[in-house]
C-alpha cells in the first residue's frame, strides 16, 4: 500500500487505451471501405480481419476491468461511476439509432458501448469479492460460451446473452458470455497488481515522446473518439461511394451476408447457401428490384418476380424441385 493511500496514475494504461482506439479506427475504416466496395475483401467475414476485430475487442473489455479497479478499487465513487456509465449508455443509444437508419437490416442493438455500460454494472461487485472468486467467475463465463448453446438464444431478444447457435444479423454484437469474463479477467490482473511493487514500476513508466503523448490523450478521450470516428468516416466514404458507383458493390455484399446467414439458419450447407444467394443477387440485379428489397414496399408485380427468382434459385440447390408443376400447370 502506498503512503497516504494515494495511488499513482498509470500513463501506460492511457497509452494502451489509445492503441486500442487507433486499432478500432483502422478496423472501422477498413470495414467501411469494404462495405462500400473500395476493398475486394469482406472485412466482416475474412478470418484475418475477424481475428483482428476480436483482438481489439478483447483489449477493450480487458481494459474496462482494469479501469474499474483503478477508478473504484478503493471504494466506489458513485457520482463518477454513474456519470460515466450513463454517458456510455447514451452513446450506445446513439449508435443504435444511427445504425438503424444506415443499416436497418443489421443495426447494432448490443455492441461495444452497450456491453461496456452493462458490464461496468455487473462487474462492480467483483471489485471487492475474493480474487479467486472473481477469477473463477471469469473463467466460468468464458467457458460457458463454448460449452453451452441453445437455439432459444438465436432470437434477437436473447442473443445479447451469447448462447446462440446461429449468430444474428448485426454489424456488432458483444454478448455477456464470454466478454463479461474478459472484463473480470482485467479486474483480477489489476487487483493483483494494485498495491504491489509492480504498480510502482508501472507508474514509473512516463513516456515523453510525441507519439506516447498523443496515444495517452486518445486513451483519456477514447469514448468520445469511439462515438465520433465512424460518423466522420462515413461522412467522407459514403458520398465518395455514391459518386464513384462503389456503393452498389457494398449493397451486394450486405445482401449476400444477410442471405447467407438466413439460409444457413435453416440447416442448409454453407456451399449450397452461397449458390442460392448468388443466384438471388443476380435476379435482383437483372429485374432491378433493389428499391423494393431495401424499402420493404413491394408491388404485386415485384413480389411475383421475387417469388419466381426464389423458385429458380431453389432449383439450383434442390434439383428435384424442377419436376414439380408450377402454378400455371406447366412442367408436366
UniProtKB/TrEMBL annotation:
Residues 9-231 form the Heparan-alpha-glucosaminide N-acetyltransferase catalytic domain. The keyword Phosphoprotein does not apply. The chain crosses the membrane at residues 12-31, 51-73, 85-103, 109-128, 135-161, 173-193, 214-242. Keywords: Membrane, Transmembrane, Transmembrane helix. InterPro entries: HGSNAT_cat (IPR012429). This is Heparan-alpha-glucosaminide N-acetyltransferase catalytic domain-containing protein. It comes from Devosia chinhatensis.
